[in-house]
Fold this protein.
Amino acid sequence: MIRITDSIAIDESEIQEDFIRASGPGGQNVNKVSTAVQLRFDAGRSPSLSPDVRRRLATLAGRRMTREGVLIITARRFRTQDQNRRDAVDRLIGLIRKAASAPKPRHRTKPTFASRRRRLESKRRRSQTKQIRQSVPQPEEQS
């Protein structure tokens, strides 16, 4: 069991890991060894996650989550399979932890008296500037 929060723990059997070849530095080793890890976690069917956490996780994951609700994390930062595996699991834990904390509700506030006064004063100044820029009508010539 992977403990994420006090109330959320996911079983290792819910995580599927595939090893793929990584691009980047590594010389000949890159062509021979599959060091990158592609971690798949079926968040849509996971009994460990509540519907609220699942919804927030989908929002946080963005394009990393498929339509079926499978979260895919690819880790290729390190040169060893073990380090990449740990990196992918840590990123999954961090993402679920962030989704588990409910966002703080926003309380509407009124603008202060001083801020309203500043706003109206700036509007007055702008209006005066525009009035000064207006063309002055020329007096008509009498013949």
Summary: The first helix runs from residue 29 to 32.
